[in-house]
Amino acid sequence: MQTVRQCEALQGQCLEWRSQGLRVGFVPTMGFLHEGHLSLMRIARSRCDKLVVSIYVNPLQFGPGEDLESYPRDEEGDAAKCDQEGCDLLFLPHSLYSEGHSTRVRVEGLTNRLCGANRPGHFEGVTTVVSRLFGLVLPHLAVFGEKDFQQLAVIRRMTRDLGLPVEVVGGPLVRDLDGLALSSRNAYLSTEERARALSLSGALRAMAESGIQDTSDLLRLGHGLLEVDELDYLEVLDAETLEPLEVLDRPARAFVAARVGRTRLIDNWAL
Ligand code: PAF
Prior knowledge:
Layout: E1 2-4, H1 7-19, E2 24-29, H2 35-47, E3 50-55, H3 75-84, E4 89-91, H4 114-118, H5 122-137, E5 141-145, H6 149-161, E6 167-171, H7 191-209, H8 215-225, E7 230-238, E8 252-260, E9 263-270
Parallel strand pairs: 1-4, 2-3, 2-5, 3-4, 5-6
Antiparallel strand pairs: 7-8, 8-9
Pantoate binds near residues 28, 58, 61, 126 and 148.
């Protein structure tokens, strides 16, 4: 596995692979890799000749007072995991934006709800960095986790609207044995907080298994089961459009975001 820190070197290598007719797969991450990230790498690995993984904690997608400074990092451990998964190139840039970088990419509509409403500017930061990375890696295929279901929908829309020749693939959410959705931020949780964090997946599972069709009744059930310190949202939405639903008459998904202690967690479940 080669490790690259310079944008030009990354683009040069990817262009060379392309000119040799090789398919390039890409998994962008912010590091502190867990089984969820590794499962995305396996999807890209199985469908491409070359696998590129990036690790970059993107300042543009963090709001004031969020955990940019304290975001967990483990460069050495992450590199060993990428190597083990058969990654060909690990991109570890110090920065992705040159001085005076002034371009932003914004998807409207889909970003109005859920995390878009609770974290102003977050998705603009995500789409700006992902489009920058797509321009460097020029991947045939890129894989994003369904844990960030709204992010996946927003990136799909951006890719379609800009006509980028990248196949965006969703990888299933990976849970710990106790049901907690894997997240780099789980590292912040104390034992007591982790026990309460399980109420997110517990509430979503109970909603999915209840057989209730009316979304107000479903949400009442979910609210009653959450043991969190601050709820950002609990919503049931159309799985395609992310628009609200009154009854489950089409594929739907339940979404939750909440703070347990100081840690903000998200989860979602197909209904
Ligand atoms: O999902 C993430 O880890 C990030 O939002 C991403 C897609 C790597 C962009 O920084």
